[in-house]
Design a protein that fits this description.
With 149 residues, this protein is an alpha+beta fold. The chain contains six helices and four strands.
Amino acid sequence: MSNPNLDDYIKQGVYGAKETKPEERRQFLGTLRERVVIALKQSQVLEERVYEEVENAIKSSTGAKLYLNGHLNYAYLSKYIKVANTYKMEYTMVTNKDYISEIGLLVAYDHAIEKEEIFVSEHKETEDQQQTESEKKGIFSSLGSFFKK
């Protein structure tokens, strides 16, 4: 009869260490949602500017770590790496060949903090720009109808 500890040891050697919530870990770049301070989706990371909310989280989250999606081009991630270096935050690039997460980056601790809202909404400037563009279209359409008369 075999020893249960020996069986566990052999299984761990063959299949790897047992992991809690593997699907959640794939989605959240190797960590758990309960540890996340702030997160951006890939599309948000691709924007030119650094999100102020992320910079503030990096600045104020002493002891946390920045996780970057390794599937994204380094050119888009470098601006956040510079911010992390400025505030002396460790960072790691996570690339999972079997799963591509929609998350582009996140700041997380190695323990649970249970923050309710972790995702940053789209930039407000983008919404303001869209409103301004629709107002311009409204002006031009009214001018067009004026000249038709």
